[in-house]
Amino acid sequence: MITLDQSPLDPAFVQDPYTFYDTARATGPVLYWSDYGMLAAFDHATVHALLRDKRLGREIPDELRMPVPDHLRDFYAVEEHSMLEHEPPRHTELRGLVLRAFTSRRIAALQGDIEEICADLIAEFPKDADFDLIPAYCTEVPVRVIARLLGVPEDMGPDLLRWSGAMVAMYQAGRDREIEDAANTAAREFSKFLRSYIDARRNDPRDDLITQLIAAEEDGQKLSTQSLIGTCVLLLNAGHEATVHSLGNAVHALLHNTVPAITPQVVEEVLRYDPPLHMFTRYAYEEVQVGDQTLYPGDQVALMLGAAGRDPNVYPAPERFDPDRKATPHLAFGGGMHFCVGAPLARLEMQVALSALFDACPDLQETSAPRYADSYHFHKLEQLMVHL
């Protein structure tokens, strides 16, 4: 078995993981990544296949479950009810209920809201000074959209951002006790807020996603209040975080390439070229042959989404950003039964937000070289300084 040694905290890797991916893909494509203690798949074909293989899943096998530490009880009380961490039949039930409320019609109806949010944010850009586009635009667009979708007051934005950031940090390399304590506090506060808000919506239904999820529960489905909380937290954390990173990475790429218009094809290319999530792990539930390696029950495997998008066997000259690239499905949203439930909304947000930004600010320029944040397996810019 060929072993890779590459710390996800190494500054050079954080700024450019793609060079490492290229070497690993050419060597493997399935190798043992010692820093994570598991096999990792770097090529598109293997990642694509394993995402859809029902012999693997996200749910921790019973024999590997460990007691939850006291200082993380609130965090895992939320995680326990997240459909991302379950397999059928529980996953099927939760996802079906979410999709019943999270309809294509509801998503399409948000376009006007997204356009309004973008216009308001752009109008507040400073006209005579450098500013950081990440907090000024990329962060604000998705959190305001999620607030409107859920029916939560938009002035809750700072709290939603704080809670989401603290909880998502649990999935980054190098987490410590401080991060864990912050995540548990955020989970407790967010759950308390959502519980009271859900109770209010039971007595005062509105045209929002929370009301729709409550209605689904009351139609005889087994969606408890705790499951409602877990679902709303997942929609915020996964939907908001991924879109923030996608927008930042996309703006950076577009500022260095000539693109006549922000078409759906351009959105797909930026997601392939520099996606927000680079690793998605799964457990083997039975023996699975992966190339010349074998996964045994209980083994974890890392599916390298960021590497799959740069596979030259699928994408010619993959290191080149090509807005005219022939549309070829990418894996930035995952695949199989865990394909991102918010993908249609993310695509709409990116289409509208990028078009609004470059239509209103055609001379937007970077004023310093941006740096990626030390937050692997997320790949995001920590700052994007620009000038109009």
UniProtKB/TrEMBL annotation:
<comment type="similarity">
    <text>Belongs to the cytochrome P450 family.</text>
</comment>
<keyword id="KW-0479">Metal-binding</keyword>
<protein>
    <submittedName>
        <fullName>Cytochrome P450</fullName>
    </submittedName>
</protein>
<keyword id="KW-0503">Monooxygenase</keyword>
<dbReference type="InterPro" id="IPR002397">
    <property type="entry name" value="Cyt_P450_B"/>
</dbReference>
<dbReference type="InterPro" id="IPR001128">
    <property type="entry name" value="Cyt_P450"/>
</dbReference>
<dbReference type="InterPro" id="IPR017972">
    <property type="entry name" value="Cyt_P450_CS"/>
</dbReference>
<dbReference type="InterPro" id="IPR036396">
    <property type="entry name" value="Cyt_P450_sf"/>
</dbReference>
<keyword id="KW-0408">Iron</keyword>
<keyword id="KW-0560">Oxidoreductase</keyword>
<keyword id="KW-0349">Heme</keyword>
<dbReference type="Pfam" id="PF00067">
    <property type="entry name" value="p450"/>
</dbReference>
